[in-house]
Amino acid sequence: MAESGIYRTPALQGWQRTNVVAAANCLREQISRNPEDAKLRAAYEGLLDLLDPSRLVSRRQREQADAARQAAAALKAERRQAERRSAERRKANLGPPSGVERRKSERRTVADRRRR
């Protein structure tokens, strides 16, 4: 029975399945000779996904989980970098800000202050 849901594919007929298995075996031999070829591996994985649709779903879920993990790690690293920058800035004594005039007297008079 075919997989239900968004990745639904019709069931393969006998001759189609035989040809897909033969193509997958041929690609497996090619991959054993040249294991670094990404195109061969992608074609082989695609044929296996065609034979077993649940494999496609699990592979896509795994890829999405990996992508989410990498995005979270990138955000965490970026946050750490920003925290590191702010910590370094606080360590340096820059003194009072330049170009800003400081008030010499109190803002309120003694009579205006409220007692607690």
Which structural traits does this protein have?
mainly alpha; 116 residues; rod-shaped
How would you describe this structure to a colleague?
With 116 residues, the chain is an all-alpha fold. It is built from 3 helices and no strands. It is rod-shaped. 2% of the residues are buried. The model has no long low-confidence stretch (mean pLDDT 79).
What can be said about this structure in brief?
The chain is 63% helix and 0% strand.
Shape: rod-shaped
Class by SSE composition = mainly alpha
Estimated radius of gyration: 32 Å
Let me know the largest β-sheet. Answer: none
Helices and strands, in N-to-C order? HHH
Helix content estimate: 55-70%
Low-confidence stretches: none
Which percent band covers the strand fraction? under 5%
Tally of DSSP helical segments: 3
Mean of residue pLDDT values: 79
Tally the beta strands.
0
- Distance between termini? 80 Å
